[in-house]
Write a structure and sequence with these properties.
The chain is an alpha/beta fold. The chain is built from 13 helices and six strands.
Length: about 300
Amino acid sequence: MEVGGTQTEPPAVARQRVRRALRKARQATPMSQGDVANKLGWSLSKMQRIEGGEVGVSLTDLRALLDVYGVTDAMEIERLTEDARVSRRQRWLTSAEHRESLTPALRQLIQFEAEATVIRAYQPTMFPGLLQTPAVAEIVLNWGRKRMSDEKRRVRYDVRMQRHRHIVENDHGPEYLVILDESVIKRHVGGAEVMAEQLETMVEYAQRPRIRIRVVPFEKGAMLGLVVPFQLLSLGEDETVVYEESYGVDRISHEPGDARRSRAFFEALWAESLTEEATQRRLADEAAALRGENIIP
């Protein structure tokens, strides 16, 4: 995937491989994170950040860890060394405007999307950014005009459209599973015409082989508003990262526990949702109501 001017291996993905390998190597020993930190004279928080994928490990620290864990396989060391180099390439998004306008978590999300095989998204409040029409995307981003400059909103709009092309329009993109609360299709964004177009576009997307959309009807949706929107990105080798977002705050989690909880919630909700066929009918009916009742001039 190319965002901002270059196409290389995403640093976040390489960092994930290093994180996974280092955790596996430590778990093959009797040492805890605290034991390793004490042996190397590090703080426990440094170990937690490395194994949590929050930072890219330096080559010096990588060698120290591999030595402590007794890893001697030359090919494994060479592979991890290269991954560590890639993981610390902070300028993978070469455009300065992207570095200045996107949150660190969003920059990581873009990199993980480039490698994901399956993306599962839950959205209780609005249409996912990847599925928003240009008109709805502009309206949604304009809601943030008090905390974002015109330039930041422009950059985020451009990036959203690029991500849309990679995930939605790309015939070889990842499988994309989406759960919407019914309130999403009832809440009118931008007026009747804009909303009708968005609903009709959702029906079109839902008919594509890689995209599956389900709506949770109101009668099934008690307490859903307490769960923030999230995405689960499957990267292969049973590896999943979680992206969560709420107003003004977003984060990436590499913790297996977070992934398991989010996946369990998603699967339970998927089973309670309308089928894909029933969802398409519900979306089409909502659009027809907007157009057929002469709401649109």
